Prior knowledge:
Elements: E1 3-8, H1 22-40, H2 42-48, E2 51-62, E3 71-81, E4 86-94, E5 99-112, E6 117-118, H3 123-134
Antiparallel strand pairs: 1-3, 2-5, 3-4, 4-5, 5-6
Amino acid sequence: MTHKTLIKVRGYHLDIYQHVNNARYLEFLEEARWGYLEDSGDIEWFAKHGLAWVIVNININYRVAATMGDTLEVFTRFSKVGGKSAVVTQEVRIAGKDAVAADAQVTFVCLDQKTGKAVAIEGELKARLEQHIAE
Length: 135
């Protein structure tokens, strides 16, 4: 399943060069992941099972500058589920310009909130994550 989140670029997102500051993209990507989790029902499922996502790696490519007034479309989808981690692929497009502002690969582990340790991705957890790839 691919999820789309819309974000309007505001003045406070900009740097001295009048384009979106690189650090803001991390916030945009996080906002989109939260939207994906809310819309899929995963927030409730993870809370019920005492699990949380912990980001362990983000690789981001900055492609084209976004500027004030642009509407960004952030597309989020699962691309890989492994035994210990999973990867979410995200792409930030500038609406109406057919341009990719940034793209990223976000790797996370699932943390047991009681022990504070990462858990193996297996059984019901693996099935839950893999369903997103199949959709």
